[in-house]
Design brief:
It contains 5 helices and 9 strands, in the order αββββαββαααβββ. With about 200 residues, the chain is an alpha+beta fold. Strands 1, 2, 3, 4, 5, 6, 7, 8 and 9 form a 9-stranded antiparallel β-sheet that branches. The radius of gyration is 19 Å and the shape is elongated. InterPro entries: Pyridox_Oxase_Alr4036_FMN-bd, Split_barrel_FMN-bd.
Length: about 200
C-alpha cells in the first residue's frame, strides 16, 4: 500500500473503521507538530458561516481536542461564545485525503492551557497581539502593529501587555468525516468518539 507523505501510514484503501480512526489521529497529530504538514493550516468555520485559515497548534488523540490560538478582540470570539458550533476542513493534496470535522468550540483566556500556550510562544508570535484588534478599519495598508515593532522582536517586558489579548480556541471534535479520493474508487467514513459508519462518497 502507498504511504502518506505526512504520517508514513499506509493509506491506500483502508478496509476497517479502526484504520480510518488511526489515520485521522495520525494526520492531525502530524499537522499540529509539523508546519510542513499539509493539514497544518486548516479552514475553521464558525456558526455565522464565516471561515478562515488557522494554524493547528495541538491535537489530543485521546479526547479528539484541537487547539488554536486567537485574539480575544477577533469577531469570531463573540460568535463562538454565542454559538459554539465549529467546522474544520483540512485537505492533504498529495494523499488525496479530506477531513471535515464538526465540533464544539470554547474560548479560554486564562487557565493552565492558555498560560502554557502563551509561555510556549516566542516573542515574534506574541508580537501579533500587541497591535490593533482584528478587523479595525485603517486608511492605509497596515499590519496593525505599533511602528516600533515592525520587523522587530519585542522584549519579554514589551510583549507582556499583549497577554490580555491572547486566548486559545479549543475545539472538541464530535464527528469526523474522512474522505479518500482514489481512481479505483473513493471511500468515505464518518466517525464519532465511540462509533463509525462507512458511507457512499
Amino acid at each position: 500500500m502507498a504511504r502518506s507523505f505526512d504520517t508514513g501510514i499506509a493509506m491506500d484503501m483502508y478496509d476497517t473503521l479502526d484504520e480510518v480512526r488511526t489515520d485521522i489521529a495520525a494526520r492531525l497529530s502530524a499537522a499540529a507538530n509539523d508546519r510542513r504538514s499539509a493539514m497544518h493550516s486548516p479552514v475553521v468555520a464558525t456558526a455565522d458561516a464565516d471561515a478562515r485559515v488557522m494554524v493547528l497548534r495541538a491535537f489530543d488523540a485521546d479526547s479528539w481536542l484541537l487547539r488554536f490560538h486567537t485574539d480575544v478582540r477577533s469577531p469570531k470570539v463573540a460568535v463562538i461564545e454565542a454559538d459554539p458550533r465549529i467546522g474544520v476542513l483540512a485537505y492533504d493534496r498529495q494523499a488525496k485525503i479530506q477531513l471535515r470535522l464538526r465540533g464544539t468550540g470554547r474560548i479560554e483566556r486564562t487557565g493552565l492551557v492558555a498560560d502554557a500556550a502563551w509561555s510556549q510562544s516566542n516573542n515574534f508570535a506574541r508580537r501579533c497581539y500587541l497591535g490593533e484588534g482584528p478587523g479595525v478599519a485603517a486608511d492605509h495598508p497596515t499590519s496593525g502593529l505599533p511602528e516600533r515593532f515592525e520587523g522587530v522582536e519585542p522584549t519579554d517586558d514589551e510583549v507582556q501587555v499583549a497577554r490580555e489579548n491572547f486566548a486559545v480556541l479549543l475545539v472538541q471534535v464530535d464527528q469526523a468525516d474522512w474522505f479518500s479520493l482514489a481512481h479505483t474508487g473513493h471511500r468515505r467514513a464518518v466517525l464519532t468518539a465511540g462509533d463509525g459508519q462507512w458511507i457512499s462518497p
